[in-house]
Write a structure and sequence with these properties.
289 residues, alpha+beta, Lambda Exonuclease, Chain A, 5-stranded mixed sheet, globular
């Protein structure tokens, strides 16, 4: 059953700590996907806040994202959108993220340098591709927070880019060419959430829900995957998934969800030590042991 909030009831809260990466009184598509993927990993990362070395792919993706953000902001504001300016934004982000969110899980300096160069090539490939924005965007890194029917907390989301015709675009770094037939489904929670937010905020239904993949192959590729706007069925499905995550977090339902992703999970040792009823303090003691 999809829960709805009676205005006379007490405000809904998840009970998460303020410094967890998802705030207590809203749900984001990324938090919902993380919870549904493995609720115990979600707990380790976002409730217990156990720090791990940043995976190289995540570090690189964030630096590339920062470079593209600088390019789109320059297009929006009429600033410097030259190749040199965007490359400089990438270099600054690469070093800043390493300093502020590190350490990064580089094997050695050679791997670090290769990752840095890979990112520069991906950014250059985007700027040279037909996907690089030519006109002024409608919005860049727009954060929305809206009440959505069927959700007991507000939905939030930050869209990388909104094109002039209201198409939301999200950028993804990838090591291999995506399967276009499955890519939109894999990211459905995020894409449909963006549509729900946009419709609630502006009354506009986007003509398309788009992903742009920046593929770190030897010769980088830039691939756009377009998805039609969600119909009523897809919207209900995604709202139900979001609400499942909200209720699970609110009720402290955190448990292992064994699957293929366990083979590369950073929290395998913590997962092996887990028992029902363990507190955050118990988790940290086990982690420190």
């Amino acid at each position: 059953m999809i829960a709805t909030l009676n205005p006379h009831e007490a405000p809904f809260t998840t009970g998460l700590t303020p410094w967890a990466q998802t705030l207590p009184q809203h749900i984001s598509p990324s938090a919902a996907k993380a919870y549904l993927g493995c609720s115990l990993k979600f707990y380790f990362e976002r409730v217990a806040c156990i720090r791990k070395a940043t995976p190289v792919a995540l570090h690189l993706g964030k630096a590339v994202h920062a470079a593209l953000q600088s390019f789109h902001l320059a297009r929006w504001r009429g600033g410097d959108d030259s190749v040199e300016a965007v490359a400089n934004a990438y270099e600054l982000a690469f070093h800043r993220l390493e300093r502020d969110e590190g350490p990064v899980n580089f094997d050695d300096e050679a791997e670090r340098e290769k990752a840095r160069q890979d990112g520069l090539r991906v950014v250059a490939a985007y700027l040279d591709s037909p996907e690089a924005m030519k006109e002024k965007p409608r919005a860049v890194e727009v954060m929305l927070k809206e009440n959505i029917p069927g959700l007991s907390v507000p939905l939030t989301g930050a869209m990388d880019l909104v094109e002039g015709n209201f198409t939301p675009v999200d950028f993804k770094s990838a090591a291999a060419k995506p399967d276009s037939a499955n890519a939109a489904f894999d990211h459905e929670i995020q894409l449909v959430s963006y549509q729900l937010l946009m419709e609630a905020a502006t009354g506009e239904t986007p003509p398309s829900l788009d992903l742009v993949f920046l593929v770190k192959t030897k010769t980088p590729q830039v691939i756009r995957v377009k998805s039609p706007p969600a119909d009523a069925h897809r919207k209900r499905r995604v709202v139900a998934l979001l609400e499942t995550a909200v209720q699970g977090i609110a009720e402290d339902r955190f448990h292992p969800q064994p699957a293929m992703h366990c083979s590369w999970c950073q929290f395998k040792n913590e997962c092996k030590a887990w028992l029902p009823g363990m507190t955050v303090e118990d988790i940290h003691r086990k982690h420190a042991a």
